[in-house]
């Protein structure tokens, strides 16, 4: 009876080991479909802060380019898109300036949202402007983005930072004009949004 029990226990332990190994293999296979740690946490900016140079103020300020666009979206009562762009603005600033060159979750967040935001802008520009006019407005932004990636690969830090910042400004300018159905329309919507928000702030201050 003792021999049988030991044999059973040995088989049980071996079975558990096999099950554990199978689980590890299964998890390893599943891991291939998940984003890598580099994708989720590593900075797009390869220049570490330890290099002695401070982060680019220009690229940090370029995150503010999204603000006019999100204000126009709220003015047109596109609330969900407006909140999307609030988050995108934060992630852009955090990834490209605040945590640039450092390991942070903000890089993964920006990598996940930025392509979707770009596609979203492209669809809006295409629907509102058509193909030819949309390309005329959107191409300078795309060219700046492509040249920024080229500068990064070539080790040109200043070129990367200025071109990537210009990409933010030009893309948002094109999107604002598209949503406003022209430069004047975008300007009017933005002025109306600023006036409405300033009035809301004044009301809060009076009540306070």
Question: Quick gist of this model?
Answer:
The protein is an all-alpha fold and 208 residues long. It is built from 9 helices and no strands. The chain crosses the membrane at residues 56-74, 119-148.
**Average pLDDT level:** 85
So what's the oligomer here?
A: single chain
Extract low-pLDDT stretches. Answer: none
The total count of helices amounts to 9
The fraction of residues in strands falls at under 5%
What is the molecular shape? globular
> What is the percent of helical residues?
over 70%
Order of helices and strands: HHHHHHHHH
Keywords: Membrane, Transmembrane, Transmembrane helix
Transmembrane segments: 56-74, 119-148
Describe the fold and architecture.
The protein is an all-alpha fold and 208 residues long. It has one domain (57-207). It contains nine helices and no strands. The protein has helices spanning 2-31, 37-41, 57-61, 66-75, 79-98, 105-129, 131-154, 157-179, 183-207. Helix 7 (131-154) runs antiparallel to helix 8. The chain is globular, with a radius of gyration of 25 Å. Keywords: Membrane, Transmembrane, Transmembrane helix. The chain crosses the membrane at residues 56-74, 119-148.
